[in-house]
Amino acid sequence: MTAGSLNTSRLSALAHSGTADGAGGAVCDLSAPDHVLLDALVKDGWTRLAVLADLTGSSAATISRRLNRPTASGIVAFRCDVAPPVSGPPVDVACRGRATASDVNRLHRTLATLPECRLLAAVTGSANVLATYWLRDIDSVQQRGTAACAPVAEP
Length: 155
Fold this sequence. Notes:
The radius of gyration is 20 Å and the shape is flat. The chain has 7 helices and 3 strands, in the order αααααβαββα. The longest helix is centred in the middle third of the chain and has 14 residues, at about 60-75. It has 2 domains: about 10-75, Arc Repressor Mutant, subunit A, CATH 1.10.10; about 85-150, Alpha-Beta Plaits. The protein has helices at about 10-15, 30-45, 50-55, 60-75, 85, 105-110, 140-150, and strands at about 90-95, 115-120, 130-135.
């Protein structure tokens, strides 16, 4: 196997990871109406179900069910950011660290669950983990650093 390539078993695992939604369909099986809905929500995440129903010629109940499939499967997630003029600007924090090769994936999964986490990356060099956070205030920096350095729980 050459550097940067995946063997057959890893390619197969990648092809099957996260591909089924709660109804047993493939995550990538989004129809034209699904794309219309998602495009509308990208422009305005507060778009009411009735408006989305009008866009697709469906009922609000159908739209609700249609949106459940991509959200339940994890390919769509909703996030709300508060405007800095209302909440004050966030404190941008970048953390670099080193984890053993056997712990990197578990650490990434753990850190990715933190709502303040804006970026999580595996990097090369003296540190192999990079995480950036938007924190509410400077006092939160110490709390986040302490939480990030806590031992990672076994699955």
